[in-house]
Amino acid sequence: MVRRMRAEAAQLPRGLLQVWDRSGPQRTQGEPAHRLRRLAGLGLLEVDDAAPAADHFPLLASGAVSERSHHGAAPLSAPARTALIAAGVRAFLRGYQPKTGC
Q1: Closest to 45 (Cα-Cα) out of 93, 89, 86
Q2: All structural domains of the chain with their residue ranges
Q3: Which of 9, 60, 76, 91 is the least buried, fewest Cβ under 10 Å from its Cβ?
C-alpha cells in the first residue's frame, strides 16, 4: 500500500495525501519519537527534536537496503542486508550521540 501511494502521489488529490499521512506515516512516527525522547532523557542520545530524529532512523537503517535491492525487486542476501542496516544504525548513533566536553 505504501509503495502504491508513493507511486501514485502525483496523481492523487492533495487532501487525500494529507489524510493518508495523518492516518499512516505520521501516526506510526509517534512511538519511535517517544522512545527517542526517552533515550535522550536518559542521556543516551542528544535529540533536540524527536520528530525529525524519528524520520532519520528508518531512512539511515533501511534506506540503503531499499535502494540497493531496487525497493525489494532484487533481494539482497541476509549478510548484505545486515551489514547495510548496521552501517545505517551506526551513522544514526554517531549523529545523535551526546556531545561531551562542550
Answers
A1: 93
A2: 30-96
A3: 9
